[in-house]
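Folds abound. Consider this:
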Amino acid sequence: MGGRNGLGEQPSQATIEAARVPTDSKDVLGPLLSMPCAPPGQHGLPGIVVGELVAILDESGAPLVTYPGQSDTNAVRARSVVPLRGPQIGRSVVLMFECGDARSPIVMGLIQEASAETLTNDGGLAVVDVDGERLTVSAQRELVLRCGKASITLTTFGKVLIQGTYVLSRSTGVNKLMGGSVQLN
């Protein structure tokens, strides 16, 4: 439980006592099940709510969310069980509430978009197409495969740049090198 109840307050002595597991008793789950949390729905909140990720705080990375039926019109600070990043702001999130408390939302996950094969990041749109026999990755401006000091870059202008500390080209058949002009060193 980390010493805090999610609201920044210390837990009460009654909560601490209720959470203690007796060492000489066979009923180890009883005290945990009798914690002073309300069951889902008791505070007017269903067990799961779909809300919206509206911001991520820079200093702590904490998400700010809004959800239907929210008593406060401002976004509420939440905790998350999944990593959240800037490009996900505006996405629908699945929320649950610690002890049924509307002030303690926990982001359980992101609602998946209709196109699960589309990946987005800060730079734009990359599309992955998989049909079982072929994998195609497309980008609008540039596609880079990088591992350590080696990279292969494909640009929108048709350039293919291969860089590395050691480049080997091997073929059991014909190995052709063709171009408008060929320069060696």
